[in-house]
Amino acid sequence: MRKRTQSSAGIPCSSNQLKEIYERQFTELSLLRRYIYSVLPLRQISTVFEPGCGTGLLGRELKTLTDAVYTGMDINRELLPNDTNFVHGDAVGNPCPADLYISSFFFSSVNNPVKWLKKVRKKLSPKGLFAVFAEYDYTRIQESPEIGLADMVREGLKREGLNTTSGSRLDYFFKKAGFTKLAGGEVTTGMQKPDRTFIEMHVNSIPDELPLVSWCVVWGVWRRS
């Protein structure tokens, strides 16, 4: 799964550094999350499951918006909050029953997304939903000036066993697995200096001066067909 305490491609990363990265990502995407919440029937669902919940940022926020029973699961025990709603386990191997699945930056860690989503579909209630709050489309990283950093990031992710094309193929994955898309889109960050710790996690050797980088984040909501 995506949650890890070190990178085989770059510099080892501590749990505290990972938590800082997740906090930054979470803050940057607050407006997008607010919109996604607005299109979800949060008052009509009873159970929510989040695979790859990490430090629990999304789950904790969601719990303030619904009375549904929430369960978050992550393979990295060190990242999990000390809360009974967050459990240690392999969400890819053991998807749980729920009315609503939510995820954030998770699909790059799923080796066979279509196969997994077919398993998830069987666990969802008849009108169950899957909301992807954020997934990087690594194929659309922009940089200025171009020094090859985007390619280095993609290669580093691949060496770690992560899928760099998942963000661009979400529609295909869900359609093949038997889901109907209800909403979706993308947001692109402005050109800005990237998080150096994030880059160092995935790239063996980086220049002292990093280029400006723009990231594309994909989101979507699908219903079990």
What does this structure look like?
The strands form two sheets. A seven-stranded mixed beta sheet has the order 3-2-1-4-5-9-7. It is globular. It has helices spanning 15-28, 30-38, 57-63, 113-123, 149-159, 170-176, 196-202; strands at 47-51, 69-74, 86-88, 98-104, 124-136, 142-144, 179-188, 212-214, 216-224. The chain is an alpha/beta fold and 225 residues long. Residues 1-11 have low confidence and may be disordered. It is built from seven helices and nine strands. Helix content is 29%, strand content 26%. It has a domain at 15-136 and 164-189 and 218-224: 3-Layer(aba) Sandwich (Rossmann fold). The protein starts with 14 loop residues before the first helix and ends with a strand.
Q: What are the salient characteristics of this protein?
A:
225 residues; alpha/beta; Rossmann fold; seven-stranded mixed sheet; two-stranded antiparallel ribbon; 7 helices; 9 strands; 29% helix; globular
Task: Give the topology, please.
Elements (H helix, E strand, L loop, with lengths): L14 H14 L1 H9 L8 E5 L5 H7 L5 E6 L11 E3 L9 E7 L8 H11 E13 L5 E3 L4 H11 L10 H7 L2 E10 L7 H7 L9 E3 L1 E9 L1
Parallel strand pairs: 1-2, 1-4, 2-3, 4-5
Antiparallel strand pairs: 5-9, 6-8, 7-9
